[in-house]
Write a structure and sequence with these properties.
Elements: H1 2-22, E1 26-30, E2 36-40, H2 41-96, H3 100-113, H4 118-130, H5 134-147, H6 152-164, H7 168-179, H8 186-198, H9 202-213, H10 219-242, H11 246-259, H12 264-276, H13 280-294, H14 297-309, H15 313-325, H16 333-344, H17 348-362
Antiparallel strand pairs: 1-2
Amino acid sequence: MGIRLLLSISAPLAVAVYLQLFNTDSATFRLSASWAEEFPIVVLVLASATVGAFAAVVLGWWHSGFLVLRHRCFRRKEERKARARECALQAVRIRAQGNLRKARRLARRAVRMDPELSSAALLAGDLAAEAGDYKDAIERHRSAWDLSHHLPEVAVRLSSDLLSAGRIDEAEKLLLRASESEGGHPVILRRLRDLYADSRRWEEARTMAVKLSRLNATPSERKEDKRKENRLILAAAEAKLADSDGKGATAMFEDAARRLPSEVGPRLRLGDVYLAENRGKRAVKTWETGYRELGKHDFLRRLVSYYKQHGKGNLQAATAIVSVGRARPSDPVPAVMAAALYFEEGQAKEATRVLRSASASTGSIGDVDAE
């Protein structure tokens, strides 16, 4: 800076001396008609050059000072960010030790040090939610959601806070808004599905489940989503049945039975619905098929109950049980149930015959004395 100042002053001075030696002209500086002053041109040149040099020096100093100040501000800001990150990490360690109160204090301090640190805001929100302070948790998680450019995971946490605070409508709007981006994220759709299911809004929950089935997922996630979708179908079918919508319930139970071929419940309930709609033969066929394919004795009990309640009699029930039991000759239960029905009707000989026939097939029933 000293060399620059020396050159800025000496160069105009040398020019002025040269002009003074070879040029003696002057210029008039007039402010009004009665006031005017004459100055040698060399003086004017020297004055203007000096003022220009001084202005250049001042501007150079200001620019350098500005750069130094900006660098210091930047360095202080980076130091605060580093301290904020360290404070957040310390809060995580304290949280793992079980000191929730101190962890919250450290997390809030990290947020104050660096309001743009999304991880600190997210941590502060998580700790507030753990402490049951949902108002603070909502504020922190909302800030983290904005800072993280609307990450789905943050939206799920914010929605959980809203639900815990009883603000269900806000949680639903938030999740719907988040689901609109990029065709919906699986995490958001799962949260919406569960929200609708908890509110017994089965149709909307199933809509979300269908959307989930169209997205990529890991095998374990796909299996769990499928399981929950099937449960939703069963719940929706029960709801329609409670609303006296037999046709809608039947369609859903049929769908559930196709989706869950190895489960007993959907087939049992499907038979019950058929029976409620006066489609007894269809109900009997459903239960018989269920026993043949799954071998569960609940189907046999349904058959016996049907025949008894609809005036068919024990003998017809016993005949039906023996007939369906032939599909599983190693199972002695149909024979035992049929024999009990024959004994109720006083037909001990027929009961004995059935038991002996089953004993010959299974070897699990001992000799039966007709007496």
